[in-house]
Amino acid sequence: RSLTVHFIMKRVGVIKGAKSEPISVQDIAVQTQALLNINDSNKEDRERLVVRRFKFEDPRIEQTQDLESDMRRYFREDLHKRLLSQDFKKQVDGLEILQKALPSIVKEVIEVLDILLRWFVLQFCKSNTTCLLKVLEFLPELLDSLKDDGYSLTESEVAIFLPCLVEKLGHNIEKVREKMRELTKQFVVVYSASKCFPYILEGLRSKNNRTRIECADLVGFILDHHGAEINGQLKSLQIVASLTAERDGDIRKAALNALATGYKILGEDIWRFVGKLTDAQKSMLDDRFKWKVREMEKKKEGKPGEARAILRRSVRENGQVFPFSVV
């Protein structure tokens, strides 16, 4: 108690030599309240309304107003004032308050997670790099905390945030792209590769070439690390294969690399999933697959499709049941 009094006295400049900072009795009272007020949060009703209406590409005025209204209702006054401030430094301060409190308020955060995700989307759509980097520092910690608490993101929550994250993967600053790339991979692990895959495929249609390149790379990542989870969606690889006809050399290269990873996992079966290709596209793919074989030999990774074939044979012979079907 004496430390609290000392702190408050220092803030108001009572202690000799202490730097004076304006603080009112109301400020002190506010800071003793809970950071998040989850009474009557009506999260499910809110999610149904938001998913139907919320579009990240160009947030409408009423969407921003709805977000501000929700934050004022459920976030402590000093917190929502910081997060809704036009001053990015105050926004960063607000995030730091949440970041420090996160380990002790995970349950409360879950109740307002959809509101937080909408606020994150708003920051992604703005151009302030400092605030965006702070968001990208906070989000991995948030996902880890949710995972540790045993919480699984709802489809509504993912639908609010993931389309925006995927589209913004093509950010023009490399440091931001790197953090977004790792965050997307974390989403794949925490949420579900099979459920994230359609969002990443959608990113292949982006008007931003860097986004398309990043999404092609992520397709390769999912094939390599979570291939069994997307067995039912392999025909979507024809979207990746279509990029081999693009004029942009970096897009073609990213698509070829992703399909080469697919060849490593699927072997010759990959030709079943790439759709109709021109002779030139087939030639490019064939050359890249031959390169992949040489790479696998150097790394002693076996032959393309070999591990998958062994798994399929084991299923047939032993009748083992695996968590995902083997095509």
From TrEMBL:
GO biological process, one term: spindle organization
Compartments in which it is found: Cytoplasm, Cytoskeleton
A cellular component term, taken from the record's GO annotations: cytoskeleton
One MF annotation (Gene Ontology) recorded for this entry: microtubule plus-end binding
Superkingdom field: Eukaryota
Keyword vocabulary terms for this entry: Cytoplasm, Cytoskeleton
Stored Pfam families: XMAP215_CLASP_TOG
Domain TOG per the UniProt entry, residue ranges: 66-299
Designated name of the protein: Protein MOR1-like
Source organism (scientific name): Trifolium pratense (Red clover)
Lineage start: Eukaryota, Viridiplantae, Streptophyta, Embryophyta, Tracheophyta
